[in-house]
Structure formats: C-alpha cells, structure tokens
Amino acid sequence: MDTPLARRRQLRRSSTDAEAFLWYHLRSRRLAGFKFRRQHPYGPFILDFFCAERNLAIELDGGQHFEPATQHRDARRASYLVQYGIAVMRFPTDLVFRNLDAVLTAISAALNVDRPSP
Fold it and tell me: How far apart are CA 107 and CA 51, in angstroms?
C-alpha cells in the first residue's frame, strides 16, 4: 500500500504537461516572490499547487473534471478547504497552454499583487 509521501512523489514524477508547465512559472519564488509547493498534502487531499503564505490552492482540471461525479467531488473538496481558510482556484489544463498570461495574472490577483511584466 502506498504511503501518503509515496503517493505525492508518484504524482510529482507523473505530472501532466500542464502541471509541469505551470510549475516552471511558480517554482523558486518566480511569481512575485511567493513560495509554492507542488503536490502538497492538506487533510485528506493532495493539492496540485499551494502557497501557504496566502492560503491559496491552485488546481488544474483535465477533461475528467467536467463529469458530474467529479464536479461533485471537486465541490466537496473545495468546501472542505474553504472551511480551513484556503482559497481554491481552478483552471482547465488547456488554458495553461492557450493563455498562460491570463492564468498567472489571475493567480497574482489572488495573491493580492500586481504581476510584474515579463
């Protein structure tokens, strides 16, 4: 049986292209100096990306997240996180590739900072 740590490591190794692409822009305090963690555990969940300083979770949603059962699970998950003061932002994976600037601008706004020009 997988331990939670082993599960997170496996998720990091098998990240989607969209997760890897967004992670490149979030890691090493590249976005306004904020530290993000990848595949961060919180309660019974593993968050795609998490900024502890601002209690902000970022989730990337592939096609399966548009199915009713998955949307219900996502809503329960978001409700749980909000109870603990964690804001949740969700982005479709294709948006990361189509309009990365809009994604990073939205995340910057949630962090309450202006996004510096590239």
Answer: 10
Torsion of CA 58, 49, 9, 78, to 10 degrees: -40
Torsion, CA 47, CA 107, CA 14, CA 38, rounded to 10: -50
Closest to 27 measured CA to CA, from 42, 37, 18, 15 = 37
- pTM comes to 0.83
Distance CA 50, CA 35 (A): 8
**Phi, psi (deg, nearest 5) at residue 42:** -145, 115
Q: For 25-50, how does the pLDDT look when each residue is reduced to its tens digit (9 = 90+)?
A: 999 999 999 999 999 999 999 999 99
Q: Tell me which residue of 31, 8, 1 sits closest to 105, measured CA to CA.
A: 31
